[in-house]
Amino acid sequence: MQYKLLDYISKKSILIMKQSTQNLEVSSEQLSEYLIKQEPLLLFDLREKDHFEKSHIKGSVHAVCNAQSKEKIMPKIPKNTKIILISEPEDFAKETAKMMASFGLNAYFLAGGFSSWKGKLSQGQTGKIIAPDELAKKLDSVFLLDVRDSSEFSEYQIPGSKNIPLEDLFDSKTLEKIPKDKEIVTICPHGNRAMVASFALARIGIDSQTLEDGLAGWNQVLKPVTVVKDPTKIIQIQKVGKGCLSHIVESKGKAIVIDPLYPFEKYIDIAKEQGFEITRVFDTHQHADHVSAARDLAQATGAKLHLSKYEGYAFDADFVGDSDEFSFGQSNLRVIHTPGHTPGSLSYVVDEKYVFTGDILFVESIGRPDLRDQAEEFTEELYNSLHNKLLVLPHHTMVFPTHHGENVEASQEAFVSTIQQSKKLPWLDISKQDFIQKIVAITLPRPMNYRKIITVNKGELKLVHSEIPDLEIGPNRCAVDVS
Ligand SMILES: [Fe+2]
Fold first, then answer.
1. How much is the pLDDT for 2?
2. Does residue 188 have an active-site annotation?
3. What are the residues whose beta carbon lies below 5 Å from ligand 1 (ion)?
4. Which one of 3.60.15.10, 3.40.50.720, 3.40.50.2000, 1.20.120.530 gives the CATH number of domain 222-471?
């Protein structure tokens, strides 16, 4: 298995392998000295996993050297980081060190192989991972260590995480910032850099776990929260990494889903668990921050797909508009056209008690009208939709938006408001003229990849499902900051 490595070694590196390897050798004594001095290095054990778990050099981590690690991990290791490879016999480590050196890495191998080591040994495994779903359950109790570059971190991060770029993780002063009394989870875009970071931490005796599939995996976590139970049930499905919200509304065994998210299989699992049938799927508008799962969910469940007739789609659906009504179980859904965020935005009123407002009205704010570069035109529509169509609903009507902002606290785990509470939001008590002036004056960064996401949601571009996590990386940026 180890010799598979040779499959991908380039002709160039084979040539380099013919050169002397004497300067890549590290003796057992030298390695022992490095470890005692806590020199910044990565100690990778390339032996079979069961051999590693039985016995390995303290501070080393098991590493699989294959095409994937060559492509995804090696380029992320800082060039100045000393890497020492161990195998038994030494040949595989020697060849790998030569190959890594040919890529500019500071790589060495333990001369004489594992059996030449005279120092301390450990047992067991290293390189633990934590699934995004698991992390979501204990987010408040762990230390989130984001090892991306600071520019990447400032663009988007998991709230509460701390940034120490991978290359800085080898500085002992930086390590003082890592708490000793908390579970540590290392984070990067896809889990590769974070895995190297966990390796680096293990070397100095700090235990950590790597977030599986990184931020891309984190952005696909869906958390269900039941908000209303009887007689109609409302389950809010939260995409915790992005602040996207969608809703299942169930009545007498028949359910509708509003603004479903990927992975859409979650809705099918919930329906199966709770014994109801999804009969209708609605989107409030053409989303710009995430890929809509409405079409896939409708297809997978045989449910009817309802989309705004005021927006253009390149595929067929049941296109709905103002005043249309639909029934499910013993409940009723009424459509209101509420343009302003997009020209075709719809809100859905269920049983005259609940309103699903899409990106027009949030718990903490109001929707941004400028996603399609027509801010001025949309702003008056936004004002009219808010004041003449939504805020005129009965005070007790519960408001279910499609997003929440990054710093908004959930109330009993859900992001829900009422029309009465909404009326107190900033900018909803000012004149239309002042409102338009304020809204038009603000410029906000747009959601990452928004142009491509809109094209996908229109049905003009097909995506492989595995591309969705990367496309959705980043915050939703749907609300106006009224703070
Ligand atoms: Fe939106």
1. 38
2. yes
3. 287, 359, 478
4. 3.60.15.10
